[in-house]
Amino acid sequence: MQIGVSSYSFSRLTRTGEMSAEDVIVKTKEMGFDVLEFSTIPLPEGESLPKYAEKLRAKAESVGLPIVNYTIGADLINGSDGDLNAEVERVKRQVDVAQILGVKGMRHDATRGFTPEHKGPKSFDAALPRLVEGCRAITEYAADLGIRTMVENHGFFCQDSDRVEKLVCTVDHPNFGILADVGNFICVDENPGTALGRVMPHTFHVHFKDFHLKPGTSFPPGEGWNLSRGGNFWRGSIIGHGDVPLLQCVQVLKRNNYDGVVSIEFEGMEDTIRGIQIGQDNLRRLLGA
């Protein structure tokens, strides 16, 4: 397995302007990661995304750091003012960016779900035909460019392991799979090890993160904490410092002979660089266990 990091881990620094996307490439290499994954590239003023992607690829090549995945937002129900064809075309332009970056995989969201104003059923099964149509159109386009597409267990509505499994199996295309985020299963109150085991046959890429957890019956812990769909508390932590059963997840990966990328997503309140570095050290020890 290769150990990577998502540029999302550095987002606290890129949002404030302390780091640029080029700086993220250099720092990732300095920190000893094998590969880098880009998530929603911050654009300098006056730059277009395709042209900037060319610069990022050249920078990564100059320091000897492969960019392996590109992660973007999408919403096949509500995006582009609810026009599915327009949203699919918008995501295809992001596939073009992925090709410029030189990656072999791209993750796009499925949907955040129906709006309160939606008339009719709001279940996942009601949304499935539209999601399948959009995901299949995107992955067929991407396949011609040599890029595999994925959805992540992300965003509550399409986050449960059975839902992402159903979506991928219904799309039924060899170029379409899952980016499995072990921590995100917590957000819908699933056991990460059990959920990861379910989606492994369809998994192209893996995110590792860790959370501090408190039951919803406990006193609300205040700033920095979030609520799961079932009302339990979670907060991002350094990998190995939290309560996600990471060793169990590693054993699931090994039993399934997974040999792809495991990317760190750091969401903790600690110092960004230190948190990422400690997380990498702990992840390497976990994978060696």
Average pLDDT metric: 97
Structural class given helices, strands, pairing? alpha/beta
Order of helices and strands: EHHEHEHHEHEHEHEEEEHEH
- Overall 3D geometry? globular
Contiguous runs where pLDDT drops below 50 for at least 5 residues: none
Summed up, the helix count is 10
**How much beta, percentage-wise?**
15-25%
CATH class: Alpha Beta
CATH architectural type: Alpha-Beta Barrel
Number of domains: 1
CATH superfamily assignment? Divalent-metal-dependent TIM barrel enzymes
Radius of gyration: 18 Å
Query: Ends: how far apart?
Result: 13 Å
Strand ordering within the main sheet: 1-2-3-4-5-6-7-11
The largest β sheet comes out as: 8 strands, parallel, barrel
Oligomer designation: single chain
Under CATH, the topology can be stated as TIM Barrel
InterPro entries: IolE/XylAMocC-like, Xyl_isomerase-like_sf, Xyl_isomerase-like_TIM-brl
Organism: Natronomicrosphaera hydrolytica
GO molecular function, one term: isomerase activity
Protein name: Sugar phosphate isomerase/epimerase family protein
Give structural notes.
Residues 27-284 form the Xylose isomerase-like TIM barrel domain. Keywords: Isomerase. InterPro entries: IolE/XylAMocC-like (IPR050312), Xyl_isomerase-like_sf (IPR036237), Xyl_isomerase-like_TIM-brl (IPR013022). The chain contains 10 helices and 11 strands. It has helices at 11-15, 21-30, 49-63, 79-82, 84-101, 124-143, 161-171, 192-199, 246-255, 272-288; strands at residues 2-6, 35-39, 67-72, 105-108, 148-152, 176-181, 203-208, 210-214, 226-227, 233-237, 261-264. Helix 2 packs parallel to helix 3 and helix 8 (192-199) packs parallel to helix 9 (246-255). It has a single domain, classed as TIM Barrel (Alpha-Beta Barrel), CATH 3.20.20.150. Helix content is 41%, strand content 18%. The relative contact order is 0.13. The strands form 2 sheets. The protein has an 8-stranded parallel β-barrel, surrounded by 5 helices. Strands 8-10-9 form a 3-stranded antiparallel sheet, with no helix packed on it. It has 289 residues and is of the alpha/beta class.
